[in-house]
Write a structure and sequence with these properties.
Elements: H1 9-40, H2 46-73, H3 82-115, H4 124-144, H5 146-150, E1 152-154, E2 176-178, H6 183-225, H7 231-270, H8 276-301, H9 303-314
Antiparallel strand pairs: 1-2
Length: 315
C-alpha cells in the first residue's frame, strides 16, 4: 500500500493559482497564435504551429486533470465508476505523454532550423509534414497509454496508490487507482515508462538544447568575422537569437519540472523511505510548473503574442 498525500491550505492556494494561470495562459496562447495561423491559411510560421500544439496539450492536461485535483483539494469527494476510471486514467496518461513529446518536438525542430543555412521559408509541404508529425505524436502516445485504459479500476475513499507514474497520477483521484495483474507487471510498466517515456525525452532535449547553443555560437562567430556575409543570413541572426532565448527557456523549464517529477516519483516506486510523501508533494507541483509557466515565458518572449496582448490591454 502507498501513502496518501496530505495537502496543507498553503499548498492548496499555490496549486490553485498555478492551475488558473495554466488554463488562462495556455488558452491565450492557443487562441491568439491559433487565430493568426488560421488567418494566414498555411503561410504561418512552423514554430508557431508547434507552439499551439504544445499549448493545446498543456491546456487539456489542466482542464481534464488539474482542475479535478483542485476540486478534490477543496474538500469535495469525487468518485467514479470502474469504466470511467479506465477512461480517465488512459486519458491522463495520453495527454501527459503528448505534452512531453510535443515539447521534445519543439526542441528538435528548433535545432534543425538553426542548422539550416538558407532562410526559413514555410511551404505547404512543410505544413503537411508538421501535421503528419502531430498525428504521429498523438497516435503513438495513444498506443502507449493503452495499459492505462486496461489496468485501472475504481478504489474507495480509503484507497492509496502503491504505484506512481509521472504521466498519470501522484495520488488517487476520483477513486481511480492502478490495477495491474501483479506487482511485477506494474513495476515493469513503470520501469519501461521511466526509461523510454520519462528519461529519454529529457536526455534528447538536453542534447538538442546543447546543439542549439553550439550552433548559435558558431553562427555568431561566423557573423562577426565575415563582413561579406549573405544579407539574408545577417537579417536572420537577431531573429534566431530571440527565438532561441524563448525556446531554450521553455525547454530548460520543462527539463527542470519534468526531471524533478521523474526523480521524485521513481524514488517513491523503488525506495519507500521517510521522504517519500514529501517527494510526492514536490512531484505534484513540478508536474504543474511547466504547464503554468510556459505560457508566461511565451507571452514575454513571443513578439507577436506580446503585441496582441498589449493592444488588447490598451483598449
Amino acid at each position: 500500500m502507498g501513502s496518501r498525500i496530505l495537502v496543507s491550505p498553503v499548498q492548496t492556494v499555490i496549486y490553485i493559482f498555478l492551475v488558473v494561470v495554466g488554463i488562462l495562459g495556455n488558452a491565450t496562447v492557443v487562441g491568439i497564435i491559433g487565430t493568426v495561423l488560421f488567418r494566414e491559411q498555411g503561410r504561418g510560421r512552423s514554430s508557431d504551429m508547434i507552439l499551439v500544439n504544445m499549448a493545446f496539450s498543456n491546456l487539456m492536461v489542466s482542464i481534464t486533470r488539474n482542475t479535478l485535483l483542485v476540486i478534490s483539494d477543496l474538500g469535495v469527494e469525487l468518485y467514479s465508476s470502474k469504466e470511467w476510471c479506465m477512461f480517465l486514467m488512459g486519458l491522463w496518461v495520453w495527454l501527459r505523454s503528448v505534452n512531453v513529446w510535443s515539447t521534445l518536438f519543439l526542441s528538435a525542430f528548433h535545432f534543425r532550423t538553426l542548422r539550416r543555412v538558407s532562410p526559413i521559408s514555410v511551404k505547404r509541404e512543410t505544413s503537411k509534414h508538421l501535421f503528419i508529425a502531430f498525428g504521429l505524436i498523438w497516435s503513438v502516445n495513444l498506443l502507449y497509454s493503452t495499459p492505462a485504459f486496461m489496468f485501472s479500476t475504481k478504489g474507495d475513499k480509503n484507497s492509496t496508490e502503491s504505484l506512481m507514474l509521472v504521466s498519470s497520477t501522484t495520488r488517487p483521484l476520483l477513486g481511480c487507482v492502478w490495477n495491474f495483474p501483479s506487482p511485477y507487471s506494474g513495476l515493469a510498466y513503470a520501469t519501461t515508462s521511466m526509461v523510454i517515456h520519462e528519461s529519454l525525452p529529457i536526455i534528447l532535449m538536453s542534447i538538442t538544447n546543447l546543439g542549439s547553443l553550439l550552433t548559435l555560437y558558431t553562427h555568431r562567430r561566423s557573423f562577426l568575422h565575415t563582413q561579406n556575409s549573405n544579407g539574408s543570413i545577417m537579417k536572420r541572426m537577431p531573429a534566431e537569437r530571440r527565438a532561441a532565448k524563448v525556446i531554450l527557456a521553455l525547454i530548460m523549464l520543462f527539463i527542470f519540472s519534468w526531471g524533478t517529477s521523474v526523480i521524485s516519483v521513481n524514488y517513491f516506486n523503488y525506495n519507500r523511505g521517510p521522504s517519500a510523501e514529501f517527494l510526492l508533494v514536490i512531484a505534484r507541483f513540478a508536474n504543474t510548473t511547466f504547464v503554468a509557466l510556459s505560457p508566461v515565458v511565451l507571452i514575454i518572449g513571443h513578439r507577436r503574442l506580446r503585441a496582441v496582448i498589449k493592444s488588447f490591454i490598451s483598449r
